[in-house]
From TrEMBL:
Keywords of this entry: Cytoplasm, Lipid A biosynthesis, Lipid biosynthesis, Lipid metabolism, Lyase
Active site (catalytic residues): H47
E.C. code: 4.2.1.59
Cited function: Involved in unsaturated fatty acids biosynthesis. Catalyzes the dehydration of short chain beta-hydroxyacyl-ACPs and long chain saturated and unsaturated beta-hydroxyacyl-ACPs.
Gene Ontology CC annotations of this record: cytoplasm; membrane
PANTHER family with a match to the protein in the record: 3-HYDROXYACYL-[ACYL-CARRIER-PROTEIN] DEHYDRATASE
UniProt record, GO biological process: fatty acid biosynthetic process; lipid A biosynthetic process
Gene Ontology terms for molecular function: (3R)-hydroxyacyl-[acyl-carrier-protein] dehydratase activity
Swiss-Prot/TrEMBL catalytic activity: a (3R)-hydroxyacyl-[ACP] = a (2E)-enoyl-[ACP] + H2O
Entries under Gene3D superfamilies matching the protein: Hotdog Thioesterase (3.10.129.10)
Family of this protein: Belongs to the thioester dehydratase family. FabZ subfamily.
Entry protein name: 3-hydroxyacyl-[acyl-carrier-protein] dehydratase FabZ
Compartment(s) where it occurs, according to its Swiss-Prot or TrEMBL record: Cytoplasm
Length: 154
């Protein structure tokens, strides 16, 4: 398991845009992370008053952050930032509301130089909440957090 301090050391995101609370595993081309969805999230003030629902774009961002946690462990990507190059086959299956815990599972599909594709699924309990294929362009990091010692993702 990778704790919150590991996330802060590896991820370039900070509050309110760090959307992952914990990485449970990140190895062998696979990563699993958790996002505890609470009513205190700033986006619930406007999405939607009286019926809070986590915006789909933020669910996709949380899935991308879990995938990034895996990628940043690879030697070739340890000093990069993953930028979206594509979001494909994305579907939202159920609303995500305060009190839910998203279990996000990602798997590496393909690496070709700076371009990486991952499949991501977000679950609430045993219900699929969202899924998609995420493509990243890995860009050199200008400053900010440095990765932990690199380890292979394949």
């Amino acid at each position: 398991m990778f704790d919150a301090q590991w996330l802060l050391n590896v991820m370039p995101h900070r509050y309110p845009f760090l959307l992952v609370d914990r990485i449970l595993e990140a190895e062998d081309g696979r990563a699993v992370g958790l996002k505890n969805v609470t009513l205190n999230e700033p986006f619930f003030q406007g999405h939607f008053p009286g019926q809070p629902i986590m915006p789909g774009v933020l669910i996709v961002e949380a899935m991308a952050q879990v995938a990034s946690a895996l990628l940043y462990r690879a030697p070739e990507y340890s000093r990069t930032t993953g930028l979206f190059a594509g979001i494909d086959q994305t579907r939202f299956r159920r609303p995500v509301v305060p009190g839910d815990q998203l279990r996000i599972e990602t798997e590496l599909l393909k690496k070709r130089g700076p371009i990486v594709r991952c499949r991501a699924r977000a679950w609430v309990g045993d219900e699929l909440a969202a899924e998609g294929v995420l493509t990243f362009a890995m860009s050199a990091r200008r400053d900010g957090p440095a990765s932990t010692p690199p380890q292979s993702v394949t």
